[in-house]
């Protein structure tokens, strides 16, 4: 069954987290999901533009939504902050700012009805679990995986209302479908610190270290996140975080789609495990997969 | 229905323990009626605070299974739908000093609230004798933030406060600052923002716990955002917070997408980018996160502009008219 | 010993306004607000309707005189007219002043503060902020108090007011956090501790903390409790506990139904039906229950408020808050089921005897009172909607000014009285918390509530009142040996509540003493055996003092303008 989505990769998937994009695309292809990149999509504002210039951010996202709507497809993004910004923008626009936005979108020949759905790739994968589980050829039974949801994946629940924000299970469901074992850590629903890594660097690093240390203590082989920004924070900044907070056991961090790609036995290059800061080789050592 | 089982985090001033209370299920009980039942029938030593029992005084916020809520406004049957019929763990609000059991200390929180300069300093045309004038929509613009009942739910799971309260305030404090800063009657909105700027306004992690936990549907994170906007528009553009945000906006406007290579120097300056961040950059090169050639190109030139970038520019320009 | 110029007890609307009023009179004064909870937990936050005050503008038909007359008439002529004239003038000022401080009032299109018409008023003069005026006013006063630098002592429970040589010299408080009993020396004390409606524990709309601690402390300090029998009942509280179902439910067209499925208001107010005034509706509901046409028994007896015919859409749109209350307290959805309701104790008209309305002085020099705990009297035998918030603002400010003006000529003294009282309370904690076996305060409190509801509720008779008084005397004896059940000094909220229950017993007995003796019907005091108002014998305030025994005295009402006439609407 072929499903087609308007794909909104988000800036990071085109830059530091290229491996998240290649793995997402490869996984989608294997699962019969067609991710059609939205031509001309722009940065969602990442919550930062929203802070200093909310109208610019709102219009940029009105444009993003209109571009997806023009494709007649559901928008899917692989980034939690993008998902929140786009969903929040849609809600704001539908709450009385649609005409205002459309007057301006007309300058680019665009019009937004507000009918476009915005979904997180995680939700598609969790919903389709029962279908694709059969395609898992390389069950990752040797892996103990600590899910790290990322704030914007579930909060605020008024906007991100896919599942309970207090006790979400979508990641656990995907982990199990990949044959791996979920390991719960206290930081499962906590913040990685990414959005304030510059103004509140020490706090951000301590939060990162706390998740990493808990994962290590819980005997997890890796952390898993559906958000490439959490990934950047947990992986790229992990050496700084561990030195700030005196942690000594690095823990590799996987993108959601990397775990899936491993379980589906996809091409190692697409999975991109070599592009991580924290060494991911231990994850492969005994598995023989990928 | 199964009995209610509450596991309550107790503290008597010296010792801490978790105590189990079991009592018969009755439909329609709130967390508060359960606590009262325990205190008046099972254990008079249990301490908690409550006053109005109708969600307007803010006295009875506690945490259930780690999440803040108003005890009087939460049905235990609803909690069971979320958590199942097993024991519920009840603990005092997070990020607060515990006096005993579920009672937390407010003194320091109140003193920190003073930093917001609460209280209106009205425009010159108004007087205590005549009062003020305000358009209905201007009142509505601040109305939501006035729903704050100082229950403390927004601070309980705030990730920034959990890490450190030395450089960040309870989220409701920013809400208080914003409600005066955004009041059309206010003489000098900046006087409510300036202390916030010095007290962590740019350090919010955007973890969205405050928005999620507020029982009144207020967004303290939104208040922080509006204070940031006010600061930025008033020319307070220096510092890693505003510079970081401005870098995103610049990229969005110039090419449509983020230029990661320029982000650090724009946020922290060239010197920091070349020295403090050097190990980080080298790590990125070493692990193939970023190619040196690509980095150089991004630094010198920029991202390629997105398809129909002109359209984006026209849209934004139309808004500035 | 800690010393202050002014100690204010209570952090609701009146206490906060008093603190600001004092500091604005003299910013150099040292002022402490002592409060048994975090500020802003008070009953003020529960007021919804608005704050009365006649504002001046082109085309305004309302006048201060009209507000004054409506208040006098509403009080059933037990209000002091000079004080009411002063009050309405200051109430108008209070609205403008709080607007200037930042209270976000709802607005008319021209930017003026919006107002609505409330029962008993001839004009729309109840200024509001949506349906949360009390909350908004409380918080803007709190904010302004912070701005003025007001200092708080949070979680300190008032034990006693100290008086030496007939002059107020401070307070003794118990720090709930630590259990420490502390004497605080001060030149003046403002009591702003709120009402005493919690004597009707299971049937009141007011918060748990409205236990009249200040009135009881003032009584122990020798100050009379004025008009204690005057407690206002609101017709519609939820059957389970008494939280208010606001008048909007009936305003939108809700039906009141008895056990026989009958809209019984047809028998009481055939023209206005459910929209009859509060007191008539309250009496009608209570009559149905007494005559056996209600549901249930005892304090849980009730009639039904049926809103189902309004339809889901209208309920969701217009009455979401009421639906929420029904869900929380009765566990039912009023879209599908009628709500059990019954009248509920709502406001204390009586309170600490205030003899000077301009400075809110009590007869003890240096002791002032404000807000619901005080009684000038502005509300007499019945308070009008919207006058309670105005009272908190006006009397709070005036008490603050009064105290600030007083301390100039006063000194700090009374150490020995203060220490003696503190020692007494330290012993009290030791003695009461050591008790084993006996009734608990919550048990006695429930008995008191049931006794008062039956004996001093909406319908009163000599026989019922006397029986209630006898029971209360017995219960009070039982209280003398009741157990606390916790001897830890740290945060002993069981002991705090034990003290509160002791206070409401004292106050209930005062109210019964006054109610038995008031052989007439006036305002909230409805005697079935004396159905008429008796101006010849009872146009006077009851004054109860406690000195071992309970002593009743009277003082004439001040009448300078409006001669009593029949109260008809």
The helicity of chain B comes to 40-55%
The CATH topology of the largest domain in chain B corresponds to Fumarate Reductase Iron-sulfur Protein, Chain B, domain 2
Whole-number mean pLDDT of chain C = 96
- CATH architecture call of the largest domain in chain C: 3-Layer(bba) Sandwich
CATH class of the largest domain in chain B: Mainly Alpha
Question: Mind telling me the CATH superfamily name of the largest domain in chain B?
Answer: Alpha-helical ferredoxin
State the helical fraction of chain C: 25-40%
- What kind of assembly state do the chains in view correspond to? heterotrimer
* SSE series of chain B: EEHEEHEEEHHHHHHHHHHHHHH
Number of domains of chain C: 3
Derived from helix and strand composition plus strand pairing, the structural class of chain B reads alpha+beta
Domains of chain B, number: 3
**Beta-strand percent range of chain B:** 5-15%
The backbone outline of chain C, from C-alpha atoms, is globular
Mean pLDDT of chain B: 95
So, the CATH homologous superfamily of the largest domain in chain C? Answer: FAD/NAD(P)-binding domain
Structure description:
- The complex is a heterotrimer of chains A (290), B (321) and C (569).
- Chain A has 290 residues and is of the alpha/beta class.
- Chain A has 14 helices and eight strands.
- Chain A folds into two domains: 119 residues, Glutathione S-transferase Yfyf (Class Pi), Chain A, domain 2, CATH 1.20.1050.140; 152 residues, Rossmann fold.
- In chain A, strands 2-1-3-4 form a four-stranded parallel β-sheet. In chain A, strands 6-5-7-8 form a four-stranded parallel β-sheet, with helices on both faces.
- Chain B has three domains: 102 residues, Roll (Ubiquitin-like (UB roll)); 127 residues, Fumarate Reductase Iron-sulfur Protein, Chain B, domain 2 (Orthogonal Bundle), CATH 1.10.1060; 81 residues, no CATH class.
- Helices cover 44% and strands 10% of the residues of chain B.
- Chain B is built from 16 helices and seven strands.
- Chain B has a five-stranded mixed β-sheet with strand order 2-1-5-3-4. In chain B, strands 6-7 form a two-stranded antiparallel ribbon.
- In chain B, strand 1 and strand 2 form a beta hairpin.
- In chain B, helix 11 runs antiparallel to helix 12.
- The N and C termini of chain B lie far apart (64 Å).
- Chain C is α/β, with parallel strands linked by helices and 569 residues long.
- In chain C, strands 1, 2, 6, 7, 8, 9 and 16 form a seven-stranded mixed β-sheet that branches. Chain C has a five-stranded mixed β-sheet with strand order 17-15-10-18-19.
- In chain C, helix 13 runs antiparallel to helix 14.
- The radius of gyration of chain C is 23 Å and the shape is globular.
- The relative contact order of chain C is 0.17.
- The mean pLDDT of chain C is 96.
- The chains are: A alpha/beta (290), B alpha+beta (321), C alpha/beta (569).
- Chains in contact: A-B, B-C.
- At the A-B interface, helix 2, helix 3, helix 4 and helix 9 of A face helix 6, helix 9, helix 10, helix 11 and helix 12 of B.
């Amino acid at each position: 069954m072929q499903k087609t989505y308007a794909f909104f990769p988000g800036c990071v998937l085109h830059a530091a987290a290229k491996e998240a994009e290649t793995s997402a695309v490869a996984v989608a292809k294997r699962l019969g999901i067609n991710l059609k990149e939205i031509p001309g999509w722009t940065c969602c504002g990442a919550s930062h533009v929203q802070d200093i210039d909310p109208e610019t951010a709102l219009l940029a996202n009105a444009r993003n939504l209109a571009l997806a709507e023009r494709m007649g497809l559901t928008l899917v993004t692989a980034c939690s902050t993008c998902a929140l910004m786009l969903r929040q923008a849609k809600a704001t626009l539908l709450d009385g700012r649609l005409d205002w936005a459309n007057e301006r979108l007309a300058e680019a020949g665009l019009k937004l009805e507000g009918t476009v759905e915005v979904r997180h790739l995680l939700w598609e994968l969790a919903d389709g679990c029962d279908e694709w589980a059969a395609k898992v050829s390389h069950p990752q039974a040797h892996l103990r995986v600590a899910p790290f949801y990322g704030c914007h994946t579930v909060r605020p629940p008024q906007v991100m209302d896919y599942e309970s924000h207090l006790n979400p299970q979508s990641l656990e469901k995907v982990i199990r479908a990949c044959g791996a074992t979920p390991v719960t850590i206290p930081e499962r629903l906590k913040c990685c610190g990414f959005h304030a890594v510059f103004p509140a660097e020490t706090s951000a690093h301590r939060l990162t270290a706390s998740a990493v240390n808990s994962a290590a203590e819980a005997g997890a082989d890796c952390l898993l996140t559906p958000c490439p920004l959490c990934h950047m924070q947990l992986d790229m900044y992990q050496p700084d975080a561990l030195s700030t907070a005196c942690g000594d056991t690095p823990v590799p961090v996987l993108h959601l789609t990397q775990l899936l790609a491993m379980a589906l036995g996809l091409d190692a290059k697409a999975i991109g495990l070599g592009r991580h800061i924290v060494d991911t080789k231990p994850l492969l050592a005994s598995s023989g997969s990928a | 229905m199964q009995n209610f089982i509450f596991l309550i985090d107790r503290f008597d001033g010296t010792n801490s323990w978790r105590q189990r209370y079991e009592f018969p299920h009755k439909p329609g009980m709130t967390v508060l009626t359960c606590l009262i039942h325990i205190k008046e029938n099972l254990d008079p030593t249990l301490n908690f605070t409550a006053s109005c029992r109708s969600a307007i005084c803010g006295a009875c916020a506690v945490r259930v299974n780690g999440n803040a809520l108003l005890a009087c406004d939460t049905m235990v049957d609803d909690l069971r739908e979320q958590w199942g019929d097993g024991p519920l763990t009840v603990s005092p609000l997070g990020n607060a000093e515990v006096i005993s059991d579920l009672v937390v200390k407010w003194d320091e929180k109140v003193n920190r609230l003073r930093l917001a300069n609460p209280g209106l300093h009205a425009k010159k045309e108004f007087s205590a004798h005549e009062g003020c004038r305000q358009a209905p929509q201007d009142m509505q613009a601040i109305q939501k933030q006035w729903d704050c009942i100082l229950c403390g739910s927004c601070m309980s799971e705030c990730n920034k406060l959990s890490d450190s309260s030395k450089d960040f305030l309870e989220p409701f404090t920013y809400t208080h600052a914003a409600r005066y800063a955004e009041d059309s009657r206010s003489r000098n909105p900046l006087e409510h923002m300036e202390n916030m700027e010095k007290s962590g306004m740019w350090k919010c992690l955007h973890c969205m716990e405050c928005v999620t936990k507020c029982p009144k549907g207020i967004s303290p994170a939104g208040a922080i955002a509006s204070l940031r906007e006010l600061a930025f528009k008033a020319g307070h553009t220096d510092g890693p917070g505003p510079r970081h945000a401005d870098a995103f906006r610049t990229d969005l406007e110039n090419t449509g997408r983020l230029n990661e290579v320029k982000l650090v120097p724009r946020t922290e300056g060239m010197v920091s980018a070349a020295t403090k961040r050097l190990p980080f950059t080298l790590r990125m090169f070493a692990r193939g996160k970023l190619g040196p050639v690509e980095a150089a190109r991004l630094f010198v030139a920029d991202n390629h502009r997105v398809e129909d970038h002109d359209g984006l520019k026209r849209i934004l320009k139309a808004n500035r008219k | 010993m800690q010393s202050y110029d002014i100690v204010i007890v209570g952090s609701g609307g009146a206490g906060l306004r008093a603190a600001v009023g004092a500091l604005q009179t003299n910013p150099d004064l040292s002022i402490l607000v002592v409060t048994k909870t975090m500020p802003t937990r008070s009953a003020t936050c529960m007021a919804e309707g608005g704050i009365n005050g006649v504002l001046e503008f082109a085309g305004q038909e309302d006048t201060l005189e009209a507000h004054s007359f409506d208040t006098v008439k509403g009080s059933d002529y037990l209000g002091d007219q000079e004080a009411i004239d002063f009050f309405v003038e200051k109430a108008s000022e209070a609205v403008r002043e709080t607007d200037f401080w930042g209270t976000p009032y709802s607005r008319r299109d021209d930017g003026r503060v919006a107002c609505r018409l409330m029962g008993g008023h001839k004009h729309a003069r109840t200024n509001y902020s949506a349906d949360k005026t009390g909350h908004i006013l409380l918080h803007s006063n709190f904010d302004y108090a912070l701005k003025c630098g007001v200092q708080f002592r949070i979680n300190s429970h008032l034990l006693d007011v100290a008086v030496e040589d007939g002059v107020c010299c401070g307070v003794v408080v118990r720090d709930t956090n630590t259990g420490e009993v502390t004497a605080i020396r001060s030149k003046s004390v403002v009591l702003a501790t709120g009402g005493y409606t919690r004597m009707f524990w299971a049937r009141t709309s007011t918060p748990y903390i409205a236990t009249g601690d200040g009135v009881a402390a003032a009584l122990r300090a020798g100050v009379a409790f004025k008009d204690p029998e005057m407690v206002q009942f609101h017709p519609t509280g939820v059957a389970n506990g008494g939280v208010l179902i606001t008048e909007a439910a009936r305003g939108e067209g809700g039906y009141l139904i008895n056990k026989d499925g009958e809209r019984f208001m047809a028998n009481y107010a055939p023209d206005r039906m459910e929209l009859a005034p509060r007191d008539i509706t309250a009496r009608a509901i209570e009559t149905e229950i007494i005559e056996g046409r209600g549901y249930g028994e005892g304090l849980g007896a009730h009639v039904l408020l049926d809103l189902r015919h309004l339809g889901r859409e209208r309920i969701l749109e217009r009455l979401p808050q009421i639906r929420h209350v029904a869900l929380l307290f009765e566990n039912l959805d009023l879209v599908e089921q009628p709500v059990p309701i019954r009248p509920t104790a709502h406001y204390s008209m009586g309170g600490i005897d205030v003899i000077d309305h301009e400075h809110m002085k009590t007869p003890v020099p240096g002791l002032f009172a404000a807000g619901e705990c005080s009684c000038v009297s502005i509300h007499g035998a019945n308070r009008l909607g919207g006058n309670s918030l105005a009272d908190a603002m006006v009397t709070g400010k005036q008490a603050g000014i009064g105290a600030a003006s007083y301390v100039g000529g006063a000194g700090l003294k009374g150490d020995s009285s203060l220490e003696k009282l503190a020692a007494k309370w330290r012993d009290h904690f030791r003695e009461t918390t050591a008790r084993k076996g006996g009734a608990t305060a919550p048990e006695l409190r429930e008995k008191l509530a049931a006794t008062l509801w039956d004996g001093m509720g909406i319908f009163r008779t000599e026989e019922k009142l006397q029986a209630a008084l006898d029971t209360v005397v017995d219960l009070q004896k039982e209280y003398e040996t009741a157990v606390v059940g916790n001897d830890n000094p740290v945060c002993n909220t069981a002991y705090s509540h034990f003290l509160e229950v002791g206070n409401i017993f004292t106050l209930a007995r005062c109210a019964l003493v006054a109610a038995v003796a008031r052989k007439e019907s006036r305002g909230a005091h409805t005697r079935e055996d004396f159905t008429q108002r008796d101006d010849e014998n009872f146009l006077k305030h009851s004054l109860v003092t406690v000195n071992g025994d309970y002593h009743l005295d009277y003082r004439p009402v001040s009448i300078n303008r409006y001669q009593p006439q029949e109260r008809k609407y």
